Amino acid sequence: MQIRRRLIPVTAAAGLAIVLVACGGGGQGAPGAGGGTPRKGGTLKVIGSADVDHLDPSSTYTTAGYNLARTWTRQLISYPADNDFTRATTPVADVAVDLPTRENGGVSRDGLTYTFTIREGVMWNTNPPRQVTAADFVRGFKRLANPVQPSGGISYYTSTIAGMQEYFTKAQRGGRTAAEISRFMAENEISGLKADGDRKLTIRLRVPASDFLNILALSFASPAPVEYDAYVPDSSEFRTNTVSLGPYQIVRYQAGKSVSLTRNPAWRQDTDPIRHQYVDGIDITLGQDSPDAVQLQLEAGSADLAWDQPVPTSALPRLQGNPDFKVWESSNLNPFLVFNLQSPNNGRALNDVRVRRALSYAVNKAAIVRIFGGPKISTVLNGAIPPGSSGFDAAVKPYATPGDEGDPARCRNELAAAGHPAGLTLQFPYRTNGNHPKVAQSIAGDLTACGVRTTLIATTADDFYGRYLSSVAKSREGKWDIAGPGWIPDWFGNNGRAIVQPLFDGRNYTEGSTNYGAYNNPEVNALIDRALTASSPQAAAETWKQANQKIMADAPIVPLMSQNTPLFKSSRVRGAVYNPLAQYYDFTQIWLG
């Protein structure tokens, strides 16, 4: 269930309601709803399979990493905890005193300048505790461009904040040690960022961006204390020296094994309008690779929540009617099949659009939907933009097959026409957790039926992204040819930027990129630019539709399905508020009964 992520806008798309759709009644508004008055104490026990992709908030880009970051980082603005979709996806002030608007003077009349006042009393858990400052936010933005592990969401910032693209480009040529990165940040500025004293931050944009507040609400936009200058971003040294601003602090991190958090004594409820500090601690135990084993522990009460494992498909029928089981709707590409266009394997066959189109006919998408519980849980996709997101067009389905069951004969014929009558041999890494092994086996069988051999490579979720898909060197060496990542939009509504830009904009391809296959079409890039500066969300949606058509004509991916989210919790969990951005319950709202 650990998915490479999404981001977030201000209004919901027409017709999309992220609500409870099965097995347990209506949504909960306040954190204590559905469970009485919240009480403090106890340790929340979370179990799962893989480590976070990155612990550093400048880099983390999975749902599990996002949910963890929610406990110990904060942003200028963020999203409230609420089971009402509209409220949960509407940004509110967090570290900032107010949400900036044109009416209150926080946004200039031309829409290019945003001004934030830092909330007094928001403290780092240093010794002694220290007030977070505007300079800490500037440092956080600069760290996104570091050359060792640049943010996977860097395009959101280079395309909006004045001077960020120039800073990023220059930073990629800089030194890679902690001292060199720190010196570069001290000697170079981002022209669109200005700290005016400790409590005032001004951000100037390149062009107006109606979704800029959503971009600021991402965990990427967390501030960074000066202590982080001593560590290479997301290094092992960083991971054992995190500094907390949220209600919890990381007191023990063991790579691949566990993460333990306790109450942050420097945090105050009166300075945080979003989070709570009900449980005494959160213990996350990793290495549980079987979703069935995780489910049994949740039902037995020996654990409270799953970390990255889904509810097993086999358990879905018997959980119907259980008050601790709920299914939440979503809009995502989860999973999808991506082609490595840089791979030298098979004579660079995957760089040939004819080959990618041929392989697009091979996959039995209906079988993948069945793996995840059938059509009540998931919906087959044929385009690059899912229903409920800006730019979705049901007419875009160039490689649809009868019953969505694949067409191996057509795949075989088109491969032969492309010069590969003997087929191909593809390197196929897959995640060992959840349903991913079954998905990989299903797709491998489909490809075998059209004469394509696959070498399946088992990998953990963190290695899957960090050492394969997002590694420039491994991609160019051909360590992988196809893979099945997942993508949840970083926000909903006017969210084309949160799907098309991170997955298909080829201009900022670098280490950590979420454009896994290094797809780059100047026509698509131009459409991205046009949509981002559109005069209205409606005009943007029409442009995103055009981008969708061109992307699918190039076939850099095979869309598979949009997956709803079944969740199960132990019976002692109270205040379980669903976060549509994390696709999970918000740890900072939970209390134990």
Number of strands: 26
Helicity range: 25-40%
Count of helical stretches: 20
The N- and C-terminal alpha carbons lie at a distance of 26 Å
Structural class: alpha+beta
Q: What topology, given as strand order, has the largest sheet?
A: 10-11-12-2-13
Ranges where pLDDT stays below 50 over 5 or more residues in a row are 1-34
The H-level CATH homologous superfamily of the largest domain, spelled out, is Periplasmic binding protein-like II
CATH fold call of the largest domain: D-Maltodextrin-Binding Protein, domain 2
What is the count of distinct domains? 2
Examine the secondary-structure arrangement and name the CATH architecture of the largest domain.
3-Layer(aba) Sandwich
Give the overall pLDDT as a whole number: 92
What does this structure look like?
There is one protein chain. With 593 residues, the chain is an alpha+beta fold. The chain folds into two domains: 20-281 and 566-592, 3-Layer(aba) Sandwich (D-Maltodextrin-Binding Protein, domain 2); 336-563, Roll (Dipeptide-binding Protein, domain 3). The chain is built from 20 helices and 26 strands. Strands 10-11-12-2-13 form a five-stranded mixed β-sheet, with helices on one face. Strands 1-14-22 form a three-stranded antiparallel β-sheet. A three-stranded antiparallel β-sheet has the order 5-9-8, with helices on one face. β24 and β25 form a beta hairpin.
